[in-house]
Amino acid sequence: MRLPDDDADPDETREWLDALEASVRAGGKERGLFLLKKLEEQAQHLGIIAHVPPYSAYQNSIPLEEQGPYPGDLALEERITSIIRWNALAMVVRANVAYGELGGHIASYASAAEIFEVGFNHFFRGDDGNRRSDLVFFQPHSAPGVYARAYLEGRLTEAELANYRQEVGGNGLSSYPHPWLMPTFWQFPTGSMGIGPISAIYHARFMRYLEHRGIANMDDRHVWGVFGDGEMDEPESIAALTLAARERLDNLTFVINCNLQRLDGPVRGNGQIIQELESLFIGAGWNVIKVLWGSDWDALFARDVHHALLRQFAATVDGQYQTLGANDGAYNQSHFFGLDPELRTLVAHMSLDEIDALKRGGHDFRKLYAALRAARMHRQQPTVILAKTKKGYGMGGVGESRMTSHQQKKLDIEALRRFRDRFALPLTDEALAEMRFVRPADDSPELAYLRERRAALRGPLPKRRADAAPVTVPSLVTYGRFAVDAAGHEMSTTTAVVRLISNLLKDGELGPRIVPIVADEARTFGMANLFRQIGIYSPLGQLYEPEDAASMLRYREATDGQLLEEGITEAGALSSWVAAATSYSVHGVAMLPFYIYYSMFGFQRVGDLIWAAADQRARGFLLGATAGRTTLGGEGLQHQDGSSHVAAATVPNCRAYDPAFAWELAVILDHGARSMMERQEDAFYYLTVMNENYPQPSRVAGAEDDVIRGMYRYAANPPAGTTADVRLLGSGTILREIIAAADLLHEDWRVTSEVWSVTSFSELAREARDIERANRLHPLDDARVSHVGRNLSGNAPVVAATDYVCAYPQLIASYVDAPFIALGTDGFGRSDNRTALRSFFEVDRRHIAVAALHALAERGAVPRSAVAKALAQYAIDVDAASPWTR
Ligand SMILES: Cc1ncc(C[n+]2csc(CCOP(=O)(O)OP(=O)(O)O)c2C)c(N)n1
Ligand SMILES: [Mg+2]
User: Fold this and answer.
1) Whose CA is nearest to atom 12 of ligand 1?
2) Of 247, 259, 314, 468, which is least packed with CB atoms within 10 Å of its CB?
3) Confidence check: pLDDT of 4 > 90
4) pLDDT value at position 1?
5) Residue 196 C-alpha to ligand 2 middle, in angstroms?
6) Which ligand gives the minimal distance to the CA of 393?
7) In the chain, how long is the greatest CA-to-CA distance?
8) Which long-range contacts (CB under 8 A, 24 or more apart) does 524-531 make?
9) Per-residue pLDDT band at 2 (split at 50, 70, 90)
């Protein structure tokens, strides 16, 4: 509404102003403020102003007059929903009757059923084999409802439903949405609260990116996310709200299932979560639609001219709403309506049963439809629908709005009977007792309707696909010659990887598919040249003249920019990476993201997002830069990463490498790109790269396969025909200390050695573990030998040193027969130069040489005095406290 410029009635205006002035004079400023607040409320009620920050009145945002007709068959939809409710409940109860420990949830879906069903019947567009589906993020513990619907649609069998949470024997259904476990069904893992909301936002954003870059047409596809009100307390849930508004993502709708409860109790017992979320989302720039009251309230609102209802709603906190929800009509009459004479009159004509039956808006198809439709039509902003529901809706005394609703997994026969009767389910007492699933005949009106609705919406959902065209990777020499033929040229592996990416970006086929991602660290990693070369993505282009416009490296934002500059949000950058890394599946267009970041702020900071990425079969590169606890030097305790490789080793489809040399890195990158883009394997790559400059050797011809497997022999110095006294293993920058230690051992102590460059202790361990298991299970077959076992056979002691904690090289220790000594950087980092740090953490050449001598002394191959002599000669402080205690 526009504010008129002219005063249409100056006398009336004067009266109002005089009245205000008189009141303030008589009653003071507070009285004046009070009157203004009342006026504001009245103005809101009259619809003169929509929102007064921070939130609007406790009522539906869409007035009845604007609600519009309902396009579906309400009675049929209600029947279908009742059947789905039952099947979802029966699935959980059956699993828990059979095996008490399986768990599962009833109350969450019970609260979300109408939200899901309005989506399924009218909004969520599926996959017609041609166009891909909308992206729908389902509340994870409501998964039984999604299974129950897929069962009615004929997409899941009765046996599968009966095997809910029993996946080991095959033919089971996973607890929550897990693409790894159900790769043709679930698209997005949401089981870890907060990951769904942030992922939904970055997916919606990435869809715009693909369109703006002219790579894919989104056909007006929409992103829907149904999340819990408790879940909104996760930092990730709200981390990217402003991004969504800033980038005007009107292809995105959140529906927050505001059942006012989380697991332990009320989300905001002493407050109102809906009002709090409204102000949060408004502040972030979203369009907010509240769906609080069902249609039976409309008549009450119409007669409530003095807004007694709104006053009473405003005065009721969520803990109280929950208690009202858990109790019957009589209780509500006395404890809500009875508190105000106007309200008492308002419901005087209603029976207690009618009062009991007053529904919250999130259980009313008409109200929900109007909200989802308004969200779908809204332009220039993302929309959040705050739907007020009841946790455990329909579960009666055992679970409706109860403190313990979330954990309710079993219902006794009485409770089941009440549920059946309430939802008029076609179940005999016998069927009820057996908790049989209900599926109307294929030609029943229910299933015909359901099929018709899904066909009108293009097909079923959720459905995951993996059929994207492969993308050819150019031959390594075309983009990586500088690395494979380095010939002693000095550079760091960070420089090398950035150059490899820059060169790949120029390839006609793969280049456009690359998505470089940074979280405000491009300059740190020497990538500023990409700003101009490929541009920084911004849907707005560049509305300003950059300060460095004249520079070769100018900061260039563009609508078709290729680089995703996320700002300081590792969670956001990782979510962008996932959107790109799953584009082959979600959009049928394979993209190859490279997210380069401080390695300490990866697995440690956003490890759960990486775990979720693994679940959804992400394909892409994570580049842990400035890696290594002693290699990063000055940055100190919070920045120096000594552990990410241990975490990476626990992610089954993450291939992690810690290469020392640019050529090794190039070979791994090439192998990874081919495996993901050409062979389309469901594994992603984690490579650590360092910022230390040193001369880079050329490729060791023939060692490429061994680099991928995890180790190759770099050097050996025993005379021909003899074996080495010790084996020295190193990875990353510490390999150079290993090489130097081999020289010390030889020159100072006449000890011969083999030097092995270990590119991946985790890959070596995986293969060795696999072979050990195969041998254990096939005791009568010829024993197989692992890469580690073959390379490190015999009994020469092994000394392994890395820039990570000892646990990293120890991943292979049990597969080596010889004594195994691990040196690492356990303890806190601290700032100093590399030499000082390597001495402090005892991973430098001197400590490696001493460790080797000691191992030889232990077996009597050298006298103990030699060790003591070495310690003195290398000036090692033997009384210093161990680094991990300091
Ligand atoms: C990161 C994370 N922390 C804790 C949990 C355990 N958990 C699962 S559901 C739930 C309560 C969810 O409440 P809400 O989001 O309000 O959903 P509702 O069930 O009420 O619809 C909790 C604590 C989880 N899944 N993920
Ligand atoms: Mg909740």
Assistant:
1) 262
2) 314
3) no
4) 61
5) 15
6) 1
7) 113
8) 524/598, 524/625, 524/626, 525/494, 525/498, 525/596, 525/625, 525/626, 526/494, 526/495, 526/498, 527/498, 527/596, 528/553, 529/502, 529/553, 530/502, 530/505, 530/563, 531/555, 531/556, 531/563
9) low
- Give Cβ neighbours of residue 4 (< 8 Å, ≥ 6 apart): none
The pLDDT tens digits for 584-637 are: 999 999 999 999 999 999 999 999 999 999 999 999 999 999 999 999 999 999
d(CA 55, CA 644): 44
Cβ-Cβ contacts under 8 Å for 543 (sequence gap 6 or more): none
Please return the burial class of 679, using the count of CB atoms within 10 Å of its CB with bins 0-12, 13-18 and 19+.
Answer: exposed
Angle subtended by helix axes 662-673 and 493-505, to nearest 10: 40
> How remote is the CA of residue 733 from the centroid of ligand 2, in Å?
49
Nearest ligand 1 atom, CA 228: 15
- Per 3-state DSSP, the chain is made up of helix, strand and coil in percentages (nearest 5) of 45, 10, 45
Residues with a CB atom less than 6 Å from ligand 1: 108, 111, 139, 141, 191-194, 228-231, 257, 259, 261-263, 267, 391, 406
Distance CA 1, CA 504 (A): 53
Q: pLDDT band for position 408 (50/70/90)?
A: confident
pLDDT of residue 48: 83
- The stretch 386-403 carries a mean pLDDT of 93
Mean pLDDT across 16-27: 92
Q: How confident is the model at residue 51 (pLDDT cuts 50, 70, 90)?
A: low
The pair phi, psi for residue 360, each rounded to 5°, is -80, 155
CA distance 123 to 118: 7
Under DSSP, the state recorded for 293 is: B
Angstrom distance (rounded) from CA 793 to CA 783: 14
In this model, does residue 847 exceed pLDDT 90?
yes
Please give the number of the atom of ligand 1 that sits closest to the Cα of 229. 16
C-alpha–C-alpha distance, residues 23 and 731, integer Å: 80
Contacts of 858 (CB under 8 A, 6+ apart): 797, 819
Ligand 2 center–CA 230 separation, angstroms: 5
Q: Residue 146 Cα, ligand 1 centroid: separation in angstroms?
A: 17
pLDDT for the residue numbered 52 = 63
Relative to the CA of 230, which ligand 1 atom is closest? 16
Q: Which two structure tokens, joined as six digits, stand for 403?
A: 């403190």
Strand-pairing partners, residue 289, are 385
How far is ligand 2, taken at its centre, from the CA of residue 390, in Å? 9
368 CA distance to ligand 1 centroid (A)?
Answer: 23
Q: Give me 519's structure tokens.
A: 């979280």
Tell me the pLDDT tens digit for each residue of 542-562: 999 999 999 999 999 999 999
Q: How far is CA 772 from the centre of its chain?
A: 34
In the chain, DSSP finds a helix count (H) and a strand count (E) of: 35, 20
Q: Cα of 23 to ligand 2 centre, how many Å?
A: 45
In this structure, the strands spanning 711-716 and 753-758 are: antiparallel
H or E element that contains 684: strand 684-688
Task: Find, among 136, 121, 142, the residue nearest to 391 by Cα.
Answer: 142
- The pLDDT, as a whole number, for residue 29 is 84
Please count the residues of the chain: 886
Work out which ligand 1 atom sits closest to the CA atom of 176. 25
Report the nearest-CA residue for atom 25 of ligand 1.
192
Cβ atoms 600, 551 nearer than 8 A: no
Residue nearest to atom 4 of ligand 1 (CA): 193
**Which atom of ligand 1 has the smallest separation from the CA of 406?**
19
CA 391 to centroid of ligand 2, rounded, Å:
7
Which ligand approaches the C-alpha of residue 198 most closely? 1
**Atom number of ligand 1 nearest to Cα 232:** 15
Determine which residue's CA is closest to atom 23 belonging to ligand 1.
Answer: 263
Which ligand 1 atom lies nearest to the CA of residue 191? 25
- Burial bucket for residue 364 (CB in 10 Å: 0-12, 13-18, 19+): buried
Q: What is the mean pLDDT of residues 705-732?
A: 97
